[in-house]
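TL;DR need structure tokens for one chain.
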Amino acid sequence: MEPTIKHIDSFSVLGIQTRVKQGSETPDLFAGIWAGFEVHQEYISAVSTRRKYYGINFPTESEDVSSYLAGMAVADDTPASEGLVKRKVPGGAYAIFECPVEGIGECYQGIFTKWLPLANAPFNPTNPVFEEYPEEDSGLPVRIYIPVSKPD
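>> reply
TL;DR here they are.
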């Protein structure tokens, strides 16, 4: 499990946001969040700049709670219509892992229990962890982005 580490530029994402308590992350929880996204998908897709979907875990003031944004990338000046949230994903160094959609949980477990404790690039808790989902039926893997700091 070796990632590609690269610098990404910041980008904006428009979608729906839900607060998620650590330990409550289940497939049903995320299926419900993405079902909520689907209500707005036609509008978001029309203003999107990329044909990919993002699940972004923004840090909050509480260490055991994140704000999960399910959405798509949009231009920075795109307005957020009622019921939607637009947030900026900060640029920076990210370790990028690839896995099949059905292996996301297992991949995260390996990242945080095996790879990260031995990594030369420490975790950067100020930036969000996020997933990039390809277009449906593309056969491409999901990418998991883990924010890292350059080693000293």
